[in-house]
Fold these 3 entries.
Entry 1:
Amino acid sequence: MSLSTADVQKVARLARLAMNNTEIEAARAQLSGIFELIAEMQAVNTIGIEPMSHAQDLSQRLREDIVTETNQRELFQSIAPQVEAGLYLVPQVIE
Amino acid sequence: MLNLTLTQLGAALRARQISSVELTQSYLDRIATHNPVYNAYITVDAKTSLAQAAMADQRLATGDAQALTGIPIAQKDIFCAKGWRTTCGSKMLGDFIAPYDAHVVEQFNKAGAINLGKTNMDEFAMGSSNETSYFGPVRNPWNQNAVPGGSSGGAAAAVAARLCAAATGTDTGGSIRQPAALCGITGIKPTYGTVSRYGMIAFASSLDQAGPMARSAEDCALMLNVMTGFDERDSTSLQREKEDYTRDLNKPLSGLRIGLPREFFAEGLSSDVGARVQEAIAEYRKLGATIVGISLPNTKLAVPVYYVLAPAEASSNLSRFDGVRYGYRADEYTDLADMYEKSRSQGFGEEVKRRIMIGTYVLSHGYYDAYYLQAQKIRRLIAQDFTDAFKQCDVIMGPTSPSTAFNLGDKGDDPVQMYLSDIYTIAVNLAGLPGMSVPCGFGDNSLPVGLQIIGNYFDEARMLNAAHQYQLATDWHTRCPQGF
C-alpha cells in the first residue's frame, strides 16, 4: 500500500507532530513499506473470530469510589516545565 | 566475585566475607572503566547506590537479610526510581527526575538490593538494536562493532560485561529475549500480568511485561521471586498466589516433551543459528526429553499484527507527552498547538515518531476495522496456535533471533528489516505467554546464539527447570567476553 503526501500530512497533524516537506516525504516512503508488511493481514479470513485485547480475557477490576491518592502537587510540579502559583502554565488559549 | 551466581553472592554477603559497599564499589569501578566505550548505562549515581549498600550492610549485620540483600542490580531506564533521572532513552524525558518508584523498583528496595544505575535502551523501548536511544547506541561486549540487541540492550550488555550482578528488562515484542540472545545471557519474559507495570513507562500496554536478565536461569528465578506479585495499581496485574520460581530447578527432565515448530526452522533462519539450536535440542534428548514436531501456522502474521497493535497503543500512550506537566518543552512557540507540535517533534526521535504515525493512522476514522480490529482477531488465531501446540508438548523451543548480532548501522535505514529480526519472539507477546532465551553456543562470527524456550501460561518454573538442567550440562552461560 502506498500512502499519499496528504495522508502523511493528515496523520502528522492528528499526532501533533510538526514535520517539514522533506520529513513528510521520508516518512511517506518508510510508512508505505511498513504498510506493505501490514497488508499481509488483509488476506486472512477472520469471520466469526472474536478480537483479543488481553491474553487472559479478564474484565477490569473495580474498587470502591474513594480517594486513594495523597496530594503531591508540589512534588509533581517541581518537574514541570513552567508553573506559577500552583498552576501549570501554557500559552494563552482564550483572548 | 564477578562470576559468582546470585545465590553464591548472597551467601558471601550474609557470611560477611564481603560487604555490600565493597561489592557495589567494585561494580561502580568497572562501570567507570568500561562504560565510556560500551555505553550500557545512561545514569550512574555512585553516592545513592553506596548509601543504599551501607543500609544493606546494616541489614546483613542484624541477620535481617533476604536472598538479594546487598546485591547490585541494574535497572532498565524505563522504570521510575524516586529521585533518579528516568529517561526511557528519550530526549523527551532527558531531565525527568522520577517522583515515585515503579513497583519493580519498590520490590527490589524492599528486598535490600542495590540500584546500581539506569541502563541504556532504545527510545521508549522501540527498537531491536539500541540504536534509537537518544543517549547513543550500546556496543556489544562480544564485539564492539555489533549491536547488543534491543530494546533492553544496555541491560544485556551490562550483564554480559559483568557491569552488574543482574538486571531488569522489559519485553513488548522480544526486548528481553533478543538482546539476551545477542549478548549471550539468560533472560525471561514472564506471563503477561505477572509483574506489575506500575511506574514502568508505557509503550504498548497490552504487551509490555517486565522480567529479569542475568547470567543463568537460577539467577533469573531468584530475580523473578522478587519482581512478581499482585499490585492493585496495575489494572492488568493478576491476583495469584506468590510462587517460588526456584522450586523445580533441580527436577530431572526425563519425560519432558519439547515441541519444535517447523515455522521456526524455515526460510530466514541463519544456518549457524539453526545448527546451534539443533545441537541444544540434541543435548535435551540426552537429558531425557522427547521431541515433538509441531506447527504454529500463523507465525508469519505475528510481525504485521504487532506493527498494528503496538503502534496503536503507543500512539495513545505517548499522547501524554505534551510539554505541559513534565518532560521536554520546546524553547520557542507561537500558541498552544504550536507548543504541542514543536515539543513533540523535537522531543521524540525518528523511530518513535514513525510508530506514533502508524498508530495514529490505523486508529483514524475509517481504518479502525480494517487494521486494529483485524489485528486483534488474528491475535486470537496466533494465541490459539499455541494453545493447540501445548496439547502435544510441555515447552516449545526454537531460535530466539534469526541471526547473531548484526553490526551497528546495518539495518538503520530499513525499518521493515529491523522489525523482522523479532519474528520468533513477537508471537509470544501477542499470546501473553512466558518466553526466555538461554545461551547455546556461538555463530560463525563468534557471536552468541540464543535458544528460545516458550512455556504455557504460568509455567515459568518448568521453563526455568528446563533451562537450569541444560546449564548444568553445558557451560555456554558461563562464557565471558574477552577483556572483562
Entry 2:
Amino acid sequence: MAKITFIEHNGKEHTVEAANGMSVMETAVKNMIPGIDADCGGACACATCHVYLQGEWAEKLAERSEMEEDMLDFAFEVQDSSRLSCQIRVSDDIDGLVLKVPEKQF
Amino acid sequence: MSGQAVETDVVIVGAGPCGLFAIFELGLLDLKCHVIDILDKPGGQCAELYPEKPIYDIPALPIVTGQDLTERLMQQAAPFNPQYHYNQMVTGLKKLDDGTFELETDGEMKFHCKVVVIAAGGGSFQPKKPPMPNIESYEGTSVFYSVKRMEDFRDKDILIVGGGDSALDWVNNLQPLAKSMTLLHRRDDFRAAPDSVNKMRELVAAGQMNLHIGQVTNLHGDNGALSGVTVKGKEGEFEVPCNTMLPFFGLTMKLGPVADWGLNLDENLVPVDTEKFATNIPGIFAIGDINTYPGKLKLILSGFHEAALMAQQAFRICKPGERLLFQYTTSSSNLQKKLGVA
C-alpha cells in the first residue's frame, strides 16, 4: 500500500491510499483526481496522464522507458520531473509520493 | 462545390474496424459502399494508435495486432470492391426531400446515397494543437498543422516543432524551398526513422538549417503574422525568429462535424436502437464506439455485431420491396459467388 498526494494546479491537495500493483494513473482515476485524463486507459498511447514528481521523488522515480520518453514528446511543458503516471506502479517503495498535476493535458 | 456527386448505395463515415466490417456485411446483401476517412490509411484507432500492439479480445484471434486486424478486414471486404476516400473529413450531411442523403467533404468531394453509416469511433483524428498562448490568432496565416501544398512554404523562415516522422519528413522536404529552416524538439533524441534523422543532422552540420532543443513558451507577432517564438531550453530562454510554424504534436480524436448533422447526441455519442442501430434520422445508422445504448460496450466485437444488424435494415431502405433472404456463407452458392470462392 502507498499514500500518494496529488496537488492540483490550483494548489488543492488530495491524499489517497493506493493499492499495490495498480498504476498511479489508475489510482488517480479511481479517486477522481481532476486533471488526469488517461484517454488511452493506461496503454502509454496518449500522454494525458502527465504528472510532475515533487521533491526527492523527482530523482527516485526519474527513470522512464523508451516508450514513455517517446510519448512524453506529446505532453505539454515537459520537465525533468515529468512522468506519465500510467507507467508508475504502486508499491510500498513509493509510499509518501507527492506529485503535481499540470495545468492542462493535451 | 465543384464536380458531380458520387452516386452509391451506402456511404460509410470512418474506415476503422467497424466501418471496414460493415462493407462486408453490406456487400453480402449486394449494397455498394464508399468509405471516407480523415486519415491517409484504413484502420482507424487500430492503425493510428496501436498498429503494433496486440489485441486479445477479437473473437477467433487469440492475439492480433492493430495493423494485422486492419489488413484482415480489408481482405475480407475486398470482394465487394469498396471505394476508399482518404485524407478527407465529411463536413456536411443533408437529407433531401426524397429521403436520400447528400454528403460533402473538406476535400471538395460530394456524395449522394440512400444510407449513411456513421462509424466514426472516437471522432476524426485531428492534429493536436499545442496550448501555446495566442496560437489561435496565428492559425491559418503563420501556424499550420499540415502541409497541403509545399509551394506555399517557399522563401519562408520556417520553424518545425516535433520529433517524429511528420516533423522530420517536412524538415527534409521543405528545407530546399525555405529561406531558413529550424527544427525544435524538447530533447536531442528523435522518434523518427533513422534515415530522416541522419539527413537532418547532415543539413545541420552543413550549416543549412538550425536545430534547437527546448519547448516553445510564447509566440510573437502582429495581426496573425508571426515574427518569432520564445523557447525555454536547458540554459534558459532564447528567441527563435520565424514567420511560419509547423507544430507536429500527434493526433487527437474530435467529434467534429458529426455534431452538426441534427443527430441526437448523448455526451458526444449517438444513441441508437439495438434492433437496427438506427439514429434519430431515418436512413442514418451509427455503429462502433460512436454509438450508445443500454449495455453498450466499446469493443470491436460489438461493432461487428452492430454492422451485421444494421445491414439488414440498410437493405430494406436501399431495395424496398425486395425480399431479404437470410443465407449462410457456408451453404449459399449465391453468397459464395459474390465472395469469389464458388
Entry 3:
Amino acid sequence: MSEQPVIEVQGLKKHFPTGQKGKVVHAVNGIDFAIRPGETLGMVGESGSGKSTVGRTILRLTNPTAGKITFCGQDISSLSMDRCRPLRSDMQMVFQDPWSALNPRMKIGSLISEPLLLHDKMVRSERQDRTEALAKRVQLSTEFLNRYPSDLSGGQLQRVCIARAIATNPKLIVLDEPTSSLDLSVRAGILELLAELKEETRVAMLFISHDLGTVKLISDQIVVLYLGQIVERAPAGSVFEAPAHPYTQSLMSAHLPADPHFVVRRQILEGEVPSPIDLPTGCSFHTRCPVAIEACSRQEPPLDQLGDNGHLAACLRIKDGGNKIA
Amino acid sequence: MSLLEVNELETHFVSRDLDNNIRTARALNGVTFAVDSGEFLGIVGETGAGKSLTAQSAVGLLRPPARVVGGSVRFAGTELLNLSDDELNGLRGHEIAMVVQNPRTSLDPLTRVGDQLIRIRQAHVKSSNSEARKRALEMMDAVGIPDPERRAMAWPHELSGGMAQRVLIAMALMNEPRLLIADEPTTGLDVTVQAQILDLLRDLVKRMNMAAIIITHDLGVVAHYCDRMAVMFAGSMVEVGPVKAVFDRPAHPYTKNLIAATPERLKLGETSILGAPPPDLYNLPDGCHHRDRCQYAEDICLTDPKIEDVAPGHAARCHLAARLLETAK
C-alpha cells in the first residue's frame, strides 16, 4: 500500500460573496487531489482559475465553503482557527513577492528564527545555531543575518522566505508563484534549492504557477484548473506529451519554450474566460471549446481515468475520440 | 543603412550621495544595434540590464537625473539625439510608436478609448472627426477587438488586460509608424492571451513592413517571434545576432549562461554557475563588466572588449568570443 497522503482534498469548494444578494464568485468548484510525502504537485491555470484560493484554503487561511481537507489523517476542514494553530508548524507557505512577504523592519536573522520562536521551545543558543544552519541550508551567507530585507536582492529574499518555511520541518509547503518575480538565472538557483529540499526532507509541495516550463521541471504530478475545476490531472510528462482536455491542449500550445527549433502548433481559443459569478451550465469550458457538442452544455463531465498511469481528464468528447482540437 | 541604428549609446544617472559627492551610475555603457523595416528584433536581459532605458534613451523620453552622454541614434538617417523636444514630439506617436507594459495605466482613465485613438490621429495628421473615427474603428478591428463600434465607447476600466493591450497596439498603429517599440507588451498577461497579442503584433509588423523592437525578459517570446535578438548585461549590448544562431552558438559567456538557465535546458542538480549579482553600476570594474562572474575570464579581460562580428550579422562584446565558438564546434 502506498504511503498515507500528507494532504487529501475532496470536493473542495470556495465561494466568495459579491455584495449582491444571491450572487457569489465561484472561485473553487469541487476539487479532489492528494499529495504524498516527497511529492510535488504542480497547479497551473490562467489568472482567476482559483489556483491561489486552493492553496490558501487547504492551509485553512480561508475557510472552505464545502468539502473535506484531510491533513496527515486528520480532518481539518472545520477546525477552529485556534485548533489549527498547532498544525501550522507542519504546513508552511512561500509567496510570490518576497519584498512584501517579509517585515522590512526585522533583521534577516529574526525573520528566519521567528517560526522557531512561535512553534518550537528552544533555548536561545539552540535557536541561534538552528538559524545559522537554516541560512547555510538555503545558501545564504550568515553575514546577512544582521542585515535588513532592503539590503538583499529578490533571489536572496526568496531564500529567506524558504528558510522560514522549512524552519519547523513542515510536512507540506504551498508555494504560490515562488519564482515568478525572479530573473531567469536567480530562478534556476531557487528551483535547484527546492528540488534538493524535496529530496532531503521528503516534504510534500503544492507548486502553484502559471509558468508551464517551471512547473514541468519541478512537479511529479500536474493539475490543470479552469474556472475553479480540475480539467486534467496527470504525471508531469503526460500532460506535456499527451494533453487530453481541449483546454489543456490549447494551454500547452500557447506555451513558448525557449528554443527556436521547437515548432509550436498554436491552437488559440476564441473569446475570454466566462465570469466566475455566472458559471456556464454543463462543462464550464463548453463556451470556448472548439470541439464542444450539444451535450456539453447540459452534462457536467466527470474526471475520468484515461490510462493506468493515473492520467485523468474531464471531457465528454474523450470517449468518442473527438477531444483533439485541430 | 538600417531604419534605426544605435551606436555605442551611453546614458548616465548623475546624483549626489549623502556626503554631497557627485556619483554617477553608468546605466548604459555601450549599446549598439540596428533594426530594419520588416524586422522583429528582441532585446533580452535581466532586471536592471538597461532594456527599457535603451528604448527611452533612443526616443528621448529620459527625465533627469538620467542623461544621454554619448553615442548616436539614427532614425532613417536623422540623428535623434540632436532633435529638439518639438521635433521629437512630431516623430513620437507618428513615425515611432511605443507600446508599454501596463496597458491600464497608459490609458487616460477619463476618456473613452475611441476618443483616445482619435486624439492621437489628429495630433499628427490633419483629419476630420469622421475620418479619424473611421480609422480608429478600422484599427480596433485590425487588432482583433470584437464589436469596435461598441468598444470605442468603453472606458479603460471596463477592459480586460488583454483588451487594454490591444487598444494600446491599435493606438500605436493609428498613424502607420515605421518603427514600433514594445516594452514587455505581454508581461502580466496569461499565456493564451500573450500568444494572441504576439501573433497579432508579428502579423501587423510583417504586413505593414514596420521595424519592431520587442523588449522582454522571456527567452521563449524571443525564440518564437523575433528574427534577431540582442542580449544586454549591465548596461551594454553583449551579443546581437539572428535568433537561431544566438541560441545554437552563443558567442558571449553571459548569453550562454542565460540560455542554460531556461527551464527547457536546466537540469536540476547539475548547474552551479548562476546567480551571482550583477556589477554595481556606480562602480563598474575596468575592462569587461562580465569578468567577475565569467567562467572563462583571462588577463585580457581587464581591457575593454569591443563589439565585433563573429559571423555575418552576429556580433559579440567579448575578447574570447571567436575562440569560444571555435572550441564549441
